[in-house]
Amino acid sequence: MKKACFFFSLIFFLASCNHRTPKSSGYFRIDIGEHTYQNFEDKNISFQYSGQSYIEPLKGQEDEWFNIVYPAFRAKIYCSYMHIQAKDFAAISEDNRKFTYQHVLKADDIQMYLYEYPEEKIYGVMYEIQGNVASPIQFSLSDSVSYFFRGSLYFDCTPNQDSIAPVLNYIKGDIIELSRSFRSK
């Protein structure tokens, strides 16, 4: 009888081990790689941009519009370059600020970073918009007299700051390099 109880207990124990516990959801590992840069140059501007991206020109615009596309990360930086008059700078700069602060309803915080490269006469601002927002980074560069360059980063996915954080930090480094290397002719 003891052998039979032991035998049935063993079978019952082994049969009950097929129960699986659910695993918590996670995110795919993103292999980002090292920063590498390539040159972009046209008749008006030049700068360095990521080796993991490409330039997508947009035709039919009166000013210069193009996208910097990151296919592996499903991200784009929408860029525009326009010639301005010194008197137009304040209005264009204010429009840029208003466009950025439209995210305030969804944003947890907006951090502003100023850039100054006086030897090249380049001044800029980068807004890092924290939270689950459509455009987590927006930036502009200008000499305050003759041109205004603007960029906005968008991801082709539902905004979730936790899941895009590694890619966002990577692209933020690329935007800083673009700002450092930016030249207007």
Structural commentary:
26% of the residues lie in helices and 36% in strands. The chain is an alpha+beta fold. The strands form two sheets. It has a seven-stranded antiparallel beta sheet with strand order 3-4-5-9-8-7-6, sandwiched between helices. A hairpin with a 6-residue loop joins strand 7 and strand 8. The longest helix is centred in the last third of the chain and has 21 residues. The chain is elongated. The protein starts with a helix and ends with a strand. The mean pLDDT is 85.
Proportion of strand residues: 35-45%
Gyration radius (Cα, Å) is: 25 Å
The end-to-end distance, rounded to whole angstroms, is 96 Å
Instruction: Please tally the β strands and state the result.
Output: 10
Return the average pLDDT rounded to an integer.
Answer: 85
Which sequence of SSEs, written as H and E, runs from N to C? Answer: HEEEEEHEEEEHE
